[in-house]
């Protein structure tokens, strides 16, 4: 055993014990910004846990300072407090770390992935799907087709393999849609407004979800006999089971969306939409260019405000691949 003194009190500790752990055994709390198990070696860098060697007067990081015989350590004088404070100020002034998890920053829809993971781990599946649907309107679909940019930046990559975020999202979404108590978010008070959405791909379906959640009514128009847009009629349909697409569409119908299929929107009936709806949203992807050309009556061309997505036609908005070609469905959802 090694005998040392900390703040005037003698203590005996096992050889190899750090001053930080010795102080903790005595009930003396030294601030730290890290926690490592016994079988890990600390690499002092933050200097928040500084203490003073009374004999030399030196300030040393207690997390990596081994206790030695007859050592005399001071933890609580003014010089120590000021040094810790300065170390913290330096850290904050030069902070370039992630205030958000990389997976969330990597998600185009900025979904709160860490919270979803924690809720799933605790078996709180209903709460988990509620978090998902704050930012992802069609999680069951995206569980199959999203290329998972969030997983590419997962911190677990440097240790073994990334957390299977898309599979977790798909799991809670599927579980929710099959349950007797499907999660529907609270709707805002009905505004009496009516929104026309042209297109039923990922951007159109997502628009409908948030329009309804915001307390407005909506009708989705599509020239095809089935809803789904690119999810139904492009290469995405090879990856996406039909029943999954149908489940999300049925969910939106139950939530209040109305679908008018086999209805192609051209310049002639577009004016009817403007007359009968408060807002029109174009989400028809690459097919929008033809309609844009028909609608453009100005010399400046058809423009879209990058901040609001309102077009040069008042109360007409455009999003998804209608604005620019988007290869990832999750970006259209975002």
What does this molecule look like?
- The chain has 14 helices and 10 strands.
- With 334 residues, the chain is of the alpha/beta class.
- The strands form 2 sheets. It has a 5-stranded mixed sheet, sandwiched between helices. The chain has a 5-stranded parallel sheet with strand order 8-7-6-9-10, sandwiched between helices.
- The model has no long low-confidence stretch (mean pLDDT 88).
C-alpha end-to-end distance: 61 Å
Q: What's the assembly state of these chains?
A: single chain
Secondary-structure element string? EEHEEEHHHHHHHEHEHHEHEHEH
What is the number of strand segments? 10
What fraction, in percent, of the residue positions are helical?
Answer: 25-40%
Give the helix tally: 14
Instruction: Give me the Rg, rounded.
Output: 29 Å
Helix/strand-derived category reads alpha/beta
Main sheet overview: 5 strands, mixed
C-alpha geometry: elongated
The largest sheet has its strands arranged as: 2-1-5-3-4
Residue runs with pLDDT of under 50 for 5 or more positions: none
In terms of DSSP E residues, the strand content is 5-15%
Residue-averaged pLDDT: 88
